Structures are given as C-alpha cells and as structure tokens.
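Hello, quick one for you while I still have it in my head. No rush at all, and the record is pasted right below.
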Amino acid sequence: MSTLERIEQKLAVLTPDSVELIDDSEQHAGHAGAKGGGHFQLIIVSPLFNGKSTQERHRMIHAAVGDMLEREIHALTIKAYTPDEV
C-alpha cells in the first residue's frame, strides 16, 4: 500500500465527504527535511468539522494520521472544510 493510500485510510475515521491528497515530494528533492518523509497537500471535507476552529480541525487530522507524521510525512499542508463551506 502506498503512503497516499495509508494516509487516506487513516483519514477515514473523520468520515470525509471528500479527500484530495497531492504528493509534492518531488518538488522538495534535495531538501534536508525531505529525507524524513514526503510533502503532501490535503483538502478534506467532513461534517465532523462543524463547529470546530481551524486549529481543532488540524488537530483532528494530525490525530488521525498519527505516527505517520513522525516517519512518512515531513510536511502536510491542510485545507479542512465542512460540507457547508464548499
């Protein structure tokens, strides 16, 4: 299973309506931090984000991907929306 697939699998706990995950790792080749994991952009829409601040949404996402942030994900750019915000 690819890193993208594992991230999407872990994000399933947030019951997303949609997930768009882009691997930008190639753009960061040679960057010292790139050796510790990939660079990703995430756009996610979930009803669980209703009533949550941006910071709370990001914490929920970080909790979902958990230990991947320590090994497989070096950078994760997040845009998290409720269904009413898209």
